[in-house]
Amino acid sequence: MLTTRPRGTNDILPSEAGKWHYLEELLRLVSKQYGYQEIRTPVFEHTELFQRGVGETTDIVEKEMYTFTDRGERSLTLRPEGTAPTVRAFLEHKMYANPQPTKLYYIGPMFRYDRPQAGRYRQFHQYGVEVFGSNDPSVDAEVIAMAMDIYERLGLTGLTVELNSVGCPVCRPRHREELQKFLEKNKAKLCPTCQGRYEKNPMRILDCKNPGCQELTQGAPTTSETLCKDCSTHLEKVQSYLQALGVPYVLNPRLVRGLDYYTGTAFEITAQGIGAQSSIGGGGRYNGLISQCGGPDTPGIGFALGMERILLTLEQQGLILPTKEMIHVFIAALGKEAQTKAFTLAQSLRQKGVIVERDYLGRSLKAQLKAADRLEAVLTVILGDEEIKKNTGIVRKMANSEQVEIPLDDITAYLIEELQKEGVR
Ligand code: HAM
């Protein structure tokens, strides 16, 4: 136990941290370019937020939440997703009183008690965006295009955008009725969860992974068949905007997302070749969520991308992110006095913004140079007793082993100039 991490969690090791940094930097850059500001919400919230926000009949709320009671007898839940917390913060801080729309993004860990497998974890990371305050279909197309822009900048190919409209409170009741009628005679054959959904939220049956339920819903009425005029016009406009941007998509009338707050536009982005967990991102419109949480009637739309799944897909497609974390200067020192000098020189170089490593183990010069090579240092400063006596240091260019002796008083300026010449600073 003491040396094993909890099932479904991951350590991001130093060797992988560079990939995460690269991805996060790209996400922050793209967010800025599209006009989004970051929001950081707590990793736990009142359980009720997700019960009411995500929906009682979703897999997430029914069986995947990490819920606990704190010492003050409050029921809290580790966030399984970022939309409900962002809506909560929008309301709590009265952001609706600002000029709209409000465009927010977040990056962080989410928690779901899911069955772990490749690409599916109990703690995973999402990047998500939410736009509050506009029901314009061009916003729907823009957020989809933004997600695709991110994947494209990473070099990913072979992705599919699946698009649907899940209807609104006007047309949803008709779909519900027709679906119940379609399933009525086979109701007893549905899995126990779907039997419960039959009354509470039959649309969720279309999303059941149980093969029996999947067979029973073959040919079932889809949401697209029962859309009201507003929803079908909205969907058409989203499509024409996507076409204008040249973003390919396929209509999937059976697409039902795993969260209850969606109204109208719903989409999922899938990647081939990463196994069963092919959804690398998804989102949609949730025009009723903000008012349902007690706020003013405000439309919303957003998406979230699974960061582990993005990295997994990059790996599958043989794409390597440029992540080298380089060392500028290694200081090799021999002898007590030289070591003291190395210690202070390292500190003063770092304070000037140079990335410096030094020996901590009193190793031989050969071993220290080997360490400098392993770290791919650009320059190595060699300080021995001889040099200290002369108040000099030897600077070695690691690429061609060229060495020059420089007075210690000038060495900082010299190193910085050399690094600039090498184009690394
Ligand atoms: P979601 O489809 O539940 O949507 O999750 C979005 C993405 O998170 C998925 O497409 C997947 O890439 C990743 N993901 C989900 N579960 C796991 C898991 N167990 N392990 C690894 N990755 C996972 C939402 O969460 C909505 N809040 C998206 C949204 C934002 N809709 C509107 N705004």
TrEMBL record:
A single GO BP: histidyl-tRNA aminoacylation
Molecular function as annotated in GO: ATP binding; catalytic activity, acting on a protein; histidine-tRNA ligase activity; transferase activity
Gene Ontology CC: cytoplasm
Annotated transmembrane regions: none
Every Aminoacyl-transfer RNA synthetases class-II family profile domain range: 23-322
EC numbers, comma separated: 6.1.1.21
Binding-site list for L-histidine: 81-83, 112, 126, 130, 257, 261-262
CDD domains listed in its UniProt record: HisRS-like_core (cd00773), HisRS_anticodon (cd00859)
Keywords: Aminoacyl-tRNA synthetase, ATP-binding, Cytoplasm, Ligase, Nucleotide-binding, Protein biosynthesis
InterPro entries: aa-tRNA-synth_II (IPR006195), aa-tRNA-synth_II/BPL/LPL (IPR045864), Anticodon-bd (IPR004154), Anticodon-bd_dom_sf (IPR036621), His-tRNA-ligase (IPR015807), HisRS-like_core (IPR041715), HisRS/HisZ (IPR004516), HisRS_anticodon (IPR033656)
Enzyme class: ligase
PROSITE patterns for the chain: AA_TRNA_LIGASE_II
Catalytic activity: tRNA(His) + L-histidine + ATP = L-histidyl-tRNA(His) + AMP + diphosphate + H(+)
Family according to the record: Belongs to the class-II aminoacyl-tRNA synthetase family.
HAMAP family assigned to the protein according to its UniProt record, in alphabetical order: His_tRNA_synth
Record protein name field: Histidine--tRNA ligase
Record organism: Thermanaerosceptrum fracticalcis
